[in-house]
Amino acid sequence: MPCKWNSICPLRKLEKAGLIDYSWSREYCESANNWINCKRYQAEEKGVAQSDNVMPDGSFVNNDK
Ligand code: SF4
Fold first, then answer.
1. CB 50 within 8 A of CB 56
2. Residue 11 near ligand 1, beta carbon < 6 Å
3. Which pLDDT score, from 0 to 100, does residue 34 have?
4. DSSP string covering 23-49, please?
5. Cβ proximity of 14 and 29 under 8 Å
């Protein structure tokens, strides 16, 4: 089952803007259960706010365009 945030995650906008490719989605968001290792998911579960440009591995993407 995909991540429960899949449809509303900020990564979707970054994909549409061409700023990231779909490998993040394949490896995390749409995976059977690897989303549990996503830093965004983990922060969300703790109620910790995060920037829209944090990737599942905790790295940052430049989203200035
Ligand atoms: S980036 Fe993380 S929180 Fe967002 S949909 Fe993918 S797995 Fe879920």
1. no
2. yes
3. 98
4. HHIIIIITSSSGGGG-HHHHHHHTT--
5. no
pLDDT tens figures, 6-60: 999 999 999 999 999 999 999 999 999 999 999 999 999 999 999 999 999 999 9
pTM of the model: 0.94
In the chain, how long is the greatest CA-to-CA distance?
Answer: 33
Please, what is the end-to-end C-alpha distance for the chain in angstroms?
A: 33
The answer for residues whose C-beta is within 8 angstroms of residue 21's C-beta and 6 or more apart is 15
CA torsion sign, 45 to 50 to 54 to 58? negative
Does residue 29's CB lie within 6 angstroms of at least one atom of ligand 1?
yes
21-40 burial, b for 16+ CB within 10 Å, e for fewer?
A: eeebbeebbebeeebeebeb
